[in-house]
Amino acid sequence: MKSYEDKLESFKNKLLEIYNSDFEKVFATHSINRAKTFRINTLIDANKARSLEMLSREGIVFKQTEVSNFYLVTKESIPLSRTEAFSKHLIYIQEVSSALPVIELNPKPNEKILDMCASPGSKTSLIQALTNNQSFVTAVEKNRNRFFKLKENLNENGVVNVNVFNADANRLVFIKPEYNNYFDKVLVDVPCTTESKININEHDSLKEWKLSNAKDISKLQKGLLNSAFKMLKRNGTLIYSTCTYSIEENEEVVNWFLKKNSNAKLMDINLNLHSLQSGKLEYRNKKFNNDLLKTVRVLPTEEFTAFYVAKIVKL
Ligand SMILES: C[S@@+](CC[C@H](N)C(=O)[O-])C[C@H]1O[C@@H](n2cnc3c(N)ncnc32)[C@H](O)[C@@H]1O
Question: What is the pTM for the complete model shown?
Fold first, then answer.
């Protein structure tokens, strides 16, 4: 069993290998107590100013982030999760980075949208918030407890028009053969090693972490991405995302997928933010498809946690 210090050393070396000159900046974000971010839940009350006013009255000070309708708490007299605005679901506590895959998916009313790995439902509910509950969402969650959590969360936050499945998303196309080449848009927010969440001041946050986890989980990620693509219709758009740094879980998965699917094309990501870097083109003597430059890594800052986003269209 490796000691905490050994693990920390390997985590640092991994970040150094991925980020080189940005290493110090990235590593520093793993010892800060990150401020909470939230969005106004327009599905409960479309009057954003009213919800923001309620929060201010409760002693929450906040500022607008780079992402529309997302705010960063700069001072709180009580925890955000104890405010009346939160208990009435007028606000939704969500990391700003977690909104980016959905913003890039650009959901529109009447579109058929599949959310492959949905619980707890932050992205499912944002899809419906952006379309005012007007798109037709299918949300899948394999874990039974998390499936119930997802249902409860959608219900409490005024989200409707969502068909929720407790199933392995890889099996969905067999349970529902009509979903073959069916969805206009698919979001594959895969389970990952969640390195963005590591806080080095909490020894427990590296407890489960080890270098080999990334390679192990990448098999699951490849399977989910491939299954997702089967259910995407021609000219449809798919977003693949993780909240981790590993190249094995990000560029390598997408590179593997592109080799397997000649009818898949990577597209530019249109997010206009400070904290973005292009995907990597090589890693440990492996060279990736040049189009991987179109994928983005969200660098962690005070406002953003690390994320990786790839946008794929079916030809
Ligand atoms: C990164 S989390 C998703 C977070 C969610 N998209 C959100 O923003 O709230 C990944 C989820 O995928 C679920 N999952 C893992 N394997 C799955 C599978 N084969 N089919 C469906 N869901 C799966 C996990 O239980 C977990 O809840």
Answer: 0.97
